[in-house]
Every structure is written in C-alpha cells, then in structure tokens.
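From the methods appendix. Each design record in this collection lists the tokenized structure first, followed by the designed amino acid sequence. Records were kept in a plain field format so they could be parsed without special tools. The example shown here is representative of the layout used throughout.

RECORD:
FOLD TOKENS (225 positions):
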C-alpha cells in the first residue's frame, strides 16, 4: 500500500471518529410561537388572499344580515334550484327556511346506492344553480376554505357552478398548522377533508386556463360576525 493511500485512509478514519457537521439552519418557529393575530387582522388577511385567488368576499355582516345578503347573491346569479348543507350545519339559523319562503327550491343531495338510480339523480341535479354551505375553517395565509364531508354533502359545494360559503370570522386561522393544532378532533371525525382555494381551475395542453371544469366557477364568501 502506497504512503499516499495510507495517508488518505488515515484522514478518513480520523474524520469518522470525530465527525464535523456544518451548522444547521435555525429551526422554524412552532405554530404556537407564531405571533398571534387578532380577529380583525385575520379577517383582513383572509379577504386579501381569497380575493387574490378569485373569490368574491362579502361582509362582514351579522347572522341576521347574512340572510338578505345570500338572497341578494342568489338573485344576482339568477339562481333558483339550490343544494345546501343541512339547516343545522349552516351557521345562519333559519336560512334554509327563509330561502324556501323566498321561492328558492332546495334539492336533496342524497344519491341512491345503485348505479342506475345514482345516475338518474345526478341528471336531476344537473339543473342546480348554486350551493350554500358553511365551512369547518379557513386559512388566512392562502385564502383557503376548509370543507368536510362528515354528514355534509360534498355535492353542495362541488356540483353547482356557484358556491356560497358562510364563514364565521372566528373560524379563520393564520395557517394550516394553526388549524390542525386547534381542530384535531374535528379533522379526525371527517373521512374527507378538502381545502378550496378559489374557484375551480383547469389548464389544457395549450395552457388555456378555464374555470368551473371540476367544481364551481364562482365562489362567494360571506364573512359573519
């Protein structure tokens, strides 16, 4: 063995005995250490980011005012047939009843288990103009809405061309880590959790962006205080 090779191997052995690693980068702050934003700041940040990704943000309004606001949005979009979460899951009490009284028809989103019945019901729901839902939460940093499927119809926000989401401002979180930290029991209860960031978008091979291909082309968010 040559002296040069012995010298190289010796230095390698010495380095393995006492390895020297480069200093590590500073670890990111945990979610709990992030500066707490007050409700007003979160609302302003969410509105800015949600608008940037194509949502139409309304309010903030009270629960009582929200009824007229939702009706106004539906009138402007010429909606008549609707899908909606169950009345108990909507954060505006009595909204479903008021919609029916004002002449809107709320269709059942329940689909039969058999293939033929399921297809027939989907054809009936093809006329739906808008969907009205609450949310599980929202993320201020991305303007995203968080929706869950436990006892709540996915078709109500996925099928109609227009989605109206009712968002209580206390459900706005700074970021995903904050939401998961505070809502872990809620997350565990849902088999399907979806993060919606603006209207549905799809781009073809020619890079032409189209809205509403795989979901609603218009998303209205009504902020509730």
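DESIGN:
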């Amino acid at each position: 063995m040559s002296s040069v090779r012995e010298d190289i191997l010796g230095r390698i052995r010495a380095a393995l005995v006492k390895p020297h690693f480069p200093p590590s980068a500073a670890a990111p702050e945990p979610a709990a250490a992030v500066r707490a934003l007050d409700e007003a700041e979160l609302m302003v940040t969410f509105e800015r980011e949600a608008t940037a990704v194509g949502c139409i943000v309304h309010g903030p309004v009270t629960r009582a005012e929200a009824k007229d606001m939702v009706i106004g949005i539906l009138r402007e979009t010429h909606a008549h047939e609707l899908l909606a979460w169950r009345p108990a899951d909507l954060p505006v009490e009595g909204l479903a009843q008021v919609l029916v009284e004002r002449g809107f028809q709320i269709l059942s989103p329940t689909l039969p288990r058999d293939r033929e019945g399921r297809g027939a019901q989907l054809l009936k729901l093809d006329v739906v103009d808008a969907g009205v839902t609450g949310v599980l939460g929202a993320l201020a940093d991305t303007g995203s809405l968080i929706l869950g499927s436990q006892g709540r119809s996915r078709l109500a926000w996925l099928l109609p061309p227009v989605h109206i989401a009712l968002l209580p401002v206390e459900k706005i979180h700074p970021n995903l880590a904050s939401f998961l930290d505070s809502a872990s029991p809620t997350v565990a209860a849902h088999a399907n959790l979806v993060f919606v960031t603006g209207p549905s978008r799809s781009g073809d091979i020619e890079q032409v962006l189209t809205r509403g291909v795989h979901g609603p082309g218009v998303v209205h968010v009504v902020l509730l205080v």
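APPENDIX NOTE: The chain has one domain: 39-224.
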